[in-house]
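Justification of resources, computational component.

The compute hours requested in this renewal are based largely on the per-chain cost of generating structure records like the one below. Each record pairs the submitted sequence with a full structure-token output. That output is archived, and it is also reused by downstream analysis tasks.
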Amino acid sequence: MQNAQAMYAQNINQLVTLLQGLGPKRTVLIEGDMGIGKSTLLTMLKERLPDYTAAYFDCTTKDVGDIFIPAVGEVDGEASYVRFVPNEEFGLHHGKPVILMFDEFGKANPAVKQAVRRTMLERTVGAKPLPKGSIVLATTNLGAEGVGDLLAAHQRNAITVVRMRKPSAGEWIEWGINNDVHPTVLGWVKDNPEVMQSFTEVPDPEENPYIFHPRATDRDAFVTPRSLHAASDILHTPGLDDDTVTAALIGTVGARAAMDMAAYIKLAGQLPKREEIMNDPLSAKVPDSAASICMVVFRALSTMTQDFVDPWMTYLQRLDATAQGLFVNGARNPEYSKRSMVVTNKQFTAWAMTNGYVFAADKK
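The structure output for this chain reads:
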């Protein structure tokens, strides 16, 4: 069964579509490796459903008394009964349909799991029903990671459990381009796609020294999509000397990844500055190594502006065909946030016609 779940593991966009459609009727529990963006599902659903209230319920910080608190009701001016008022983290006080995420559900206190079971099954918090159309979901880590995620059989049977897979290196790079991830990190991931493997694919932890593995008990820091984003923040921080950067990276992505990434940091220092390409695209330096060229391309995609497209397209034609294809495929990606800016540029369309690229008109 575990093999079947892994075979049909879904990417994050597939899961958002599943949750949007099924979530109002059935609670879906998303399980997956740590640090792959499970909590991001709430943000993505909110973007698709702007009229909903996004409600984040952190199960690891709750006890049963945090679910509702008692309030005294009155009949004919006399206190006569106790009712329970839901915690504001359920989002019901906004009076709109909610997207309710029970995050880290597998690590919740057993009493909390029991207390929210009715919400998962019947779409009600105590005696107060969720607004019509509300979506309920939960997230948890893989039980095999050994970080305390456990579900009893009756709890699991009452919900739909779907595995979320790690993004591929290409998928994560596409996301990184749109989210200001440092080009050094993007270039390193491109050359080391194995950092996106799940430990479930690696029987011997020594086969992949970068990632989390429950059998690698001495591996305190490791590479996940989350820690790579943190590494990007380190590299974007101004004023840090080389030793400080390396120390911070070791504590973020692990010693092996940090030392490997250091070589890419040195390459980044040899890249032509963006201003040099902007001001003189015919003379700006063209890097010698393939890794450096990739970083130049990723930086261009990440930092593209209207006034940079023309000089960049002039510079691009000085790069080899592989680098040109890398840029064009990135720019044509429907998820690329600056797609319209690039593909409607006259130099870009001229390049596409000359090189036989045929694609549908941009609709963004």
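The chain has a mean pLDDT of 90. The beta strands are 28-32, 53-58, 68-75, 78-86, 98-103, 124-125, 128-129, 135-141, 160-164.
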